Amino acid sequence: MAEEPEVPEEEVKKPSKLPLILGVVLALVGAGGGFFAVSSGLLPFGGGSSETAMAEGHAMPEKPDPGPPPEDVSNVEFIPMEPMLISLMNGGAVRHLRFTGQIEVESEHRADVEKLMPRILDVLNGFMRAIEVGDLSDSLTLNKLRAQMLHRVQIVSGRGRVRDLLITEFVLN
């Protein structure tokens, strides 16, 4: 009995991943180019440019809408607040916050709010001492603090006396 000679098995070649990688790269480049073309107005759809609107027959307004008429500011006054220096604890270290602001009131309420200024400063001082230094790293923190401080000032001064609180200095060192 003769044995058949062994035929070596061919090694199985793994398919190349080059076409897959090339396809993904080309798809990303195409998507980026398409986004740029639409957002810059090179293509006539989706951009909303004035040339596109004129070409489509949409009339563009000659002047933008001015919005509501400006409010009367003849009776608005600003009461400056004394600068406040607040010590804040940051773990074991002490940091200082320097705060200065102005209170916006109508002229007829100025004397009332000025009379209550020591109480307003006391409430703001107590509130700001409770602030943690880590909370000040958020970019929206100043807006949130301003809203909370305005609310406290309005509670102390009474309903309708204080229109707004303007922060003119807010420095942490």
UniProtKB/TrEMBL annotation:
<dbReference type="Pfam" id="PF03748">
    <property type="entry name" value="FliL"/>
</dbReference>
<comment type="similarity">
    <text>Belongs to the FliL family.</text>
</comment>
<keyword id="KW-0997">Cell inner membrane</keyword>
<keyword id="KW-1133">Transmembrane helix</keyword>
<keyword id="KW-0283">Flagellar rotation</keyword>
<comment type="function">
    <text>Controls the rotational direction of flagella during chemotaxis.</text>
</comment>
<feature type="transmembrane region" description="Helical">
    <location>
        <begin position="20"/>
        <end position="45"/>
    </location>
</feature>
<protein>
    <recommendedName>
        <fullName>Flagellar protein FliL</fullName>
    </recommendedName>
</protein>
<keyword id="KW-0966">Cell projection</keyword>
<keyword id="KW-0969">Cilium</keyword>
<feature type="region of interest" description="Disordered">
    <location>
        <begin position="52"/>
        <end position="71"/>
    </location>
</feature>
<keyword id="KW-1003">Cell membrane</keyword>
<keyword id="KW-0472">Membrane</keyword>
<keyword id="KW-0145">Chemotaxis</keyword>
<dbReference type="InterPro" id="IPR005503">
    <property type="entry name" value="FliL"/>
</dbReference>
<keyword id="KW-0282">Flagellum</keyword>
<keyword id="KW-0812">Transmembrane</keyword>
